[in-house]
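We emphasize that the prediction below concerns an isolated chain of 343 residues; any contacts that depend on oligomerization or on bound cofactors are therefore not represented. The input was used exactly as deposited, without trimming of termini.
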Amino acid sequence: MHVVKRLHAQGAFRQDVIIVGATDIAQQIIENIRSPQWRDRYRVIAIFDDRIARLKDASIAGMPIQGDIQSLRDYIHTADADLIAIALPWEAAGRVFDLLERLQMISADIVLPIRPNRLNLRLPQGGDLAGMPVLQLMREPLKGSMALLKLTVDYSIGALGVVLAAPIVAVAALAIKLDSPGPVFFKQPRLGLNNKPFMIYKLRTMTVDPSDDGTRGTDRHNPRITRVGNFLRRSSIDELPQLINVMRGEMSIVGPRAHVPNMLVSDAPYAEAVRRYAMRSRIKPGITGWAQINGMRGGIHTLEKAQRGVDLDSYYIENWSVWFDLKIMVQTLTVGMAGRDVF
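Result of the prediction step, given as a token string:
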């Protein structure tokens, strides 16, 4: 009991809150959180508003407004937020849902505060924020014990995988060196949790082309694929260095596939072509995943396939469990590492 009280006093159970919208609702939230009743449970860490250039006062309740929504999307790469409160009136539904769509890649609970004197209903997805009723718009997919459990599985299997894969990677590295000029390893920016870019590691399977940024993917008959590279890709051995990304905390063993920034589908950015694409970033990308073992290996060159991939990733995020992850791992080892869709 003493330990729990000590952790509580140190803020271990306190939720970090980001407020979107410099409004009187935001001011009320800040004042509530500053009160003795709530200051140990919540902390406002930042305020953002798209109208910052037009506001007379770039602060609210003594806190500076740090920027617009793009600034928030950059800010979340270096700050951990537990909850985002969209401090707009209920009547501004259009703006609320526009913001929700723009924030869907952030892995945090997103709520809409509701003034009791305007709407006093018992809502099925309701709750409260420092005494103010809120409507839950989006829920963080993995948090608390669930997040810890997935992290434990990632590091346990990742560490074992690094040991088992080391001899295979060593032989593959020698073959790559003998087959074509260039580095053994291939690294490229990919999008991770909260849309944060990271460098992914793979074994090089193609001749080097500095002009290729990866946005158009690779087709089956790409002439740059080397002889050794063709075998590594079809056997998925080229993916093994991603275990390093897992151990660095940038990826999971199981999750949505890590795509390059601004990936194109039918000459349009994937994020614009498929509306719910950005929500894939609410969890870490994976070496394998529900979409990959259901036909999403290989290139994504049509809107139909792109939409199916997002639907499969969405299903995985909404239905995650350790057993689901184990099922995907087993199917990856037995049927998902090779086949006509793998190239």
